[in-house]
Amino acid sequence: MTGGAGSRIRGLVRKEFLQVRRDASSFAIAFVLPAVLLFLFGFGVSLDAREVPVAVVVEDPTPEASDFVASLINSKYFVPRIMHARPPAERAMLAGEIDAIVVLRETFAGELNASDIRPAPIQAIVDGTNANRGRVLLGYLRGAWANWLAQRGLEDPALARATIDVEQRVWYNPAVDSRNFIVPGLVAIIMTLIGALLTALVVAREWERGTMEALFATPVRTSEILLGKLIPYFTLGMGGMALSVAMAVFVFEVPLRGSLLVLTAASAVFMVTALGMGLVISSVTRNQFVAAQTAILLTMLPAIMLSGFIFDIEAMPAWVQAVTYIVPARYFVAILQTLFLAGNIWPLIWPNLLALALFGTGLLLIAGRRTRKSLE
Amino acid sequence: MSEPVVALAGVGKRFRKSGRPALDDIAAEAEAGSITGLIGPDGAGKTTLLRLIAGLYKPSSGTLRVAGRNGAPEPGTLGYMPQQFGLYEDLSVAENLDLYADLQNLPRSQRRERMARLLSFTGLEPFTDRLAGNLSGGMKQKLGLACVLVHPPRVLLLDEPSVGVDPLSRRELWRMVRELSEQGMAVLWSTAYLDEAARCSRVWLLDEGRLLAQGPPDNFLAEVRGRCFRMPLGETGRRHVQALASAHRGVLDAQIQGRGLRLVLEKDTPPPDAKEVGAAGEAESVEPRFEDAVVARLRGQHASETEEASGHEDDWRKHADGDDTAIETRELTKRFGDFTAVDRVNFTVRRGEIFGLLGPNGAGKSTTFRMLCGLLPASGGEARVAGFDLAHARADARARIGYMSQAFSLYGGLSVRQNLNFFAGAYGLYGRGARQAIRRALKDFELEPYAGASAAGLPLGFKQRLSLACALMHGPAILFLDEPTSGVDPLTRREFWARINAMAERGVTVLVTSHVMDEAEYCDRLAIMYRGRVIASGPPDELKQTHLGRLDASLEDAFIRLIEAQEGPAAAEAPA
C-alpha cells in the first residue's frame, strides 16, 4: 500500500500546483501580500521620533539662547519654530501643530552664566497624549540640552560645568534604529497570516465545492489529503518567507547576523505551524469567507498584540503574559529578532524552536482528527 | 441467488440527540447488475443514506454490508458521485481524470488504455484539454461519472446526478449507467425525476427518514391500477375544474395534462361526476404512471398536511388594463459582442395565461427573461410588458412585475416577517399598505406559524412559498418564474403549482422558464428555444401531436425529437 500512498500524494500535490498556476489567488497570498504588508508596515511603523515640530519660546534673544536654538535646528530630530511668548506656542500645541514647547526665559543667559550651580534653566513641555512618543521626545530634549552644555564646555573650558558624564552604548542595535527591531518581528507576524491563510482558504474551498466529499469516497487517507495540502503550500510559503527576508536585508537594510541555514530551518518549523493553524481553521469553518476572517482574527491580531513584536511582554500583567505562551508567533518573533540582530545564540533559539515544533505537531494532529470526522 | 452487494439491516442515523432521526430502521438490499432508484421528498434522507453506504457517515444503529464487508467499504470497491460531481473546475478534463487515477492507484501501465475507454464511453474525447469549469452541465456530469469509474467499482452511488442537466444529457447518462449495470455493477441512483426512477429495477421510496416502500416500479404501478382516470377539459376554465376536482372527496391527485385532467383516486372510489366539476366529458380509465403511484403513496402519508391553495376568493388586485396582451416581443434580439444570445424572438402572452419558455441550458431563455424584466437592454427589436415599451418605460414596466428567481433570493438570517417587511419596503409599500400586504401574504401563503422563524431554516416547500409571497408583495400583474421547481419533489411541486394556478385564475399572467419538461405540462402555451431562436411554439398537446403524432407521449420526447430534427442527433452536445 505504500506505493499507492506515494502515487496518491503525488497526484494531490500535482493537482494543487496546477490549481495554483491557474488561480492567481494563492500566488498573490504567498508573494504579493507579504511584500505589500512589509512595505506598508516596514515604512509606516516606526518607534523613532524624527523631525518633530517643536516651538521654542525665546523670551530674550541673547547670543546664548540663539546658540542653543541653532543646535536644535541642526539636529535631525527637531523642526523648531521660534516664538517670543508662550501663549501663541500653547495655541499651536492645542491645534496639534507642534508636539513640544521649549521655553528659554528672559533670565536664561544670566542663570546660565551665574557661577553657582542651579537647576536647569530651561523648561520643556511635551504633548503627552501619546505617552510613548511623549517620553521619547522628553528624552531627546534632555539629550539635546546635555549635548549643548557639553559642547559649550569643550569650546570654552571656563564654561564647563560639573556634569555627570554618562556614556551610552547600545548593544545589538548600536544605531538605536527601531526598524532593525521591528522588521524581523514584522516578518514573523506576516508569515503567520500568510501561512494560515494559504491552507485555510484552499481547504475551505474543497469543502465548499463538494470536492472534499468526493475525495473521501476514494481510497485516499486523511493524512494523505493533509500532506497533499502541506507540501505545495509549504513550498509557496517558504518562497514568500525568502522574499520577506530578502526585503528585510536589502530594502530595510536590517543586518542579518545569524546564519542563513538556521534561519531556513527555523522558518520551516514555523511554516508548518502556520499552515497547521490554517488547516485547523478550515476544518472547523469549511467556508472560504469565514475561514479568511478567522485566520486574520486568530493569527494576525494576537500576533501583533501578544508576540512581543512591539509591545514588551515583560511589561504585561502576569496573566496576559501567560496568554502569550499560546501565540506561536511569539516564539518566531523571538527567534527572528535573535537571528537578525544578535546571531546564532542557541540558548535563545532552542527553547523557542522546540515550542514551535510542539505547536506544529499538535495543530497537525488536531487537523487530522477533525478532518477525519468531517462529514458528520 | 448470490449475496446482495449492498445490505442494510435496521440502519438508523441520528445527528442530534433529540428530534426525529435523519434515518430510521432502514432495511433494504441491492443486487449486482441492478439499478436502484432512491426517491422521496426533499429532506427524506436520500443523501444521508448514500453517504452511509459510502462510509462517509457511521450508522447510529443497525448493520450495513457493502460488497461482502461489514461497515466501511473496502477501498476501491465503491464509487460515489456527490451532488456537485466532485470536479476541480480549474483543472482540465484530462487532469481531473489523472488525479482520480492517482487517487484510485490505477497503475501507469493500464492508464492510457483505461482513459481512452472512459473518454470514448462518455463522449468527452474532443474536450480533454478544456477546463472542467467551462463544460456544460451535462458534460460535467459525464466527467464526474468518468472520474468515479477510473477504477471500476462494484457499487456505484449517484446522488441526484441529473439536477440542472438538460433532457438529452439525462438520457445519455441513463444509457451509460444501464450499460454499467449490465456489466454487473450495482447502481444506487437518487433522483427527483420520477420518470428516471420508473426505469430502475427497484425503487426505494424514502419519506422523513423512513423507508416507506420498496420494490420494482411495476409493484408500485399495480397498486394504483384502476385508480387513474383522465377527464377531457374544455377551452376555458381548466384550472377552475382542476381546483374543484382536487377538492373532491376521494381524489388524491388532479393534474392538468394538455387538454385533459389526470386523476388519481383513493381505493374503491368512483371518479367525480363530470358535470359536478365542470369537465367537458366523463372520466375514462387510463394506464397509471409511476408518478401517480408515488404521489398516491405520499399523499396517504401526509393526508392531514395536504391542503390546496385555491379556496380564497380574496382581494388580490384584479388586473384590467384594458388591453388583453400582457407580454409581447417583436424580433427581440440580444447580442454580446459577435455572439447572438437571442435571435429575433417573437411571442405574445395573453393576460391570465401561463406561458413557458423552454430549452436546454444556453438556449437564450435567461437572457430573454432578463430583457423582459428590464434588467438587460435589448440590442434590437421590441418588447412590451403590461402595455409599456421596455425601451422607454422600463421602470413603469418593472413596477408591474414580480420576479422569483431559481436561487430563492431571500435573506436567510432574517425571519419570515422581516423578509416580507424588507420586500414591502423595496417595492415602495409603507405604513398601512405595507402592513396589510404583509398580513395578507402571511395568511394566503399560510406562513403565520413560521412568521418568527428564520428563512434559512424553513423546509424547502416553505422557502418557495415565502419567495413567491415576496415576489407578489406589490400585487404585480405579471409574474416571472425562473426554474421554479427544478429538483423539487412531486408533492412540493404540486403545491407550488396549485398556487400559481390560483394566481392565473385571478388574472395574473405567468411566464416560466424551465429545462424540466414536466413543468411545461402546467403551461397553457410554450415556446421552445434553442440556440437563441424559438424553434416551436403552441399548447403542449399541439406540440406533442405535431412532432410525435401521439398525445400520450411526454413533452420531453417531443422536445428531443425537435432538437434532433434541428441539428442532427449530436447537436445537443454543444457546450453551454
UniProtKB/TrEMBL annotation, chain A:
Pfam family, any one? ABC2_membrane_3
**What topology does the record note for this protein and the membrane?**
Multi-pass membrane protein
Q: Membrane: is it a keyword of this entry?
A: yes
Domain ABC transmembrane type-2: from-to ranges: 148-374
Q: Does the keyword Membrane apply?
A: yes
Q: Which PROSITE patterns match?
A: ABC_TM2 (PS51012)
This protein's UniProt keywords? Cell membrane, Membrane, Transmembrane, Transmembrane helix, Transport
The cellular component terms of Gene Ontology attached to this UniProt record, alphabetical and capped at eight, are:
plasma membrane
Q: Where are the transmembrane segments?
A: 24-43, 181-204, 230-252, 259-284, 290-311, 348-367
Q: Where located?
A: Cell membrane
Example GO molecular function term?
ABC-type transporter activity
**Family indicated by similarity:** Belongs to the ABC-2 integral membrane protein family.
What is the designated name of this protein? ABC transporter permease
From which source organism is this entry?
Ferruginivarius sediminum
Classification of source organism: Bacteria, Pseudomonadati, Pseudomonadota, Alphaproteobacteria, Rhodospirillales
TrEMBL record, chain B:
Report the domain of life of the source organism.
Answer: Bacteria
Q: Please indicate if the UniProt record lists ATP-binding as a keyword.
A: yes
Extent of Basic and acidic residues compositional bias = 302-322
Q: Quote any Pfam family the record assigns.
A: ABC_tran
KW Mitochondrion (keyword) present: no
Instruction: Give GO terms: molecular function aspect only.
Output: ATP binding; ATP hydrolysis activity
Task: Specify where the region named Disordered lies, as residue ranges.
Answer: 299-322
Name the CDD domains on file: ABC_DR_subfamily_A
What keywords would UniProt list here? Answer: ATP-binding, Nucleotide-binding
The residues covered by the ABC transporter domain are 6-233, 327-556
- Cite the PANTHER family for this sequence: ABC TRANSPORTER G FAMILY MEMBER 20 ISOFORM X1 (PTHR43038:SF3), ATP-BINDING CASSETTE, SUB-FAMILY H, MEMBER 1 (PTHR43038)
**Protein's UniProt name:** ABC transporter ATP-binding protein
Q: What's the source species for this entry?
A: Ferruginivarius sediminum
